[in-house]
Amino acid sequence: MQTEYLAKSLLEITDKIAAHGIAIIDQFLPAPTVDALAEEISQLAQLNALKAAGTGRENVAINANLRGDHIYWLDEQSGSPAQQVYFNAMEALRLELNRQLYLGLFGLESHLVLYPPGMAYQKHIDRFKGENAGKPLRQISAILYLNSQWQASNGGHLRLYLQEESLGAAPYLDILPTGGKAVFFLSDTFYHEVLPANQDRLSLTGWFLTR
Q1: What is the average per-residue pLDDT within 171-184?
Q2: Cα 157 to chain center, whole Å?
């Protein structure tokens, strides 16, 4: 079922977003960069620099039963060499999306993510339709996985629901968070959740912004 969403280039990512609202690409970044980003998360965890993530954009609430990840927000101006490889790739994709789809994407916000074993993120959407008119809005969600040698038995799938919430028990797509894989989808269209894993689950999550 994933084959219709699979892309092999920036242009194909754009084509899949246009056709389906979802694109999946393996080896979005070189393996050494993926490993370096994963090592950054490990170092941040050792320094207690990762913070418990919350839900809600205006009034943020911490509830590990709803969302159990720990995060570290990135600054494009002071990012590490590995982060700059990521930012450069995302900028190239932003320009391609704007050129092909006229989305008016003007920025990117991103954070490193660690889900400890057993932690999950319950079903949610990254942006409700019509939310916060006049303010920067999340238009496309982007998740880059940093888990080397990840197996299906480790769990931690991204469950992406393929129909509107109003339709009830929608069909879904389970995506294994293998290192180097990136998933892109329309932020105001697809509900999704993170299933628990049996070991640390690492990723870099970002959102292209529009007005």
Answers
A1: 97
A2: 12
* Closest CA relative to residue 166, chosen from 132, 128, 138: 128
- The alpha helices in 28-104, defined as continuous H runs, are 31-46, 81-101
Residue 127's pLDDT is what?
A: 85
Write b or e for each residue in 91-102: b if 16 or more Cβ atoms lie within 10 A of its Cβ, otherwise e. Answer: eebbeebbeeee
Put simply, whether the predicted model's pTM sits higher than 0.90 gets the answer yes
Per-residue pLDDT at 2: 78
Give pLDDT tens digits for 146-157: 999 999 999 999
Instruction: Please state, as a whole number, how many other Cβ atoms lie within 10 Å of the Cβ of residue 33.
Output: 20
CA 78, 83, 88: angle at the middle one, nearest 5? Answer: 100
Give the helix, strand, coil percentages of the chain, each rounded to 5.
25, 30, 40
Residue 206 bridge partners (DSSP) = 110, 142
Amino acid at 145: Y
| Helix pair angle (81-101, 10-20), 10° resolution | 50
Q: Do strands 107-115 and 182-186 pair parallel, antiparallel, or not at all (unpaired)?
A: unpaired
Instruction: Give the number of residues written for the chain.
Output: 211
Instruction: Identify whether the C-beta of residue 101 lies closer than 8 Å to the C-beta of residue 206.
Output: no
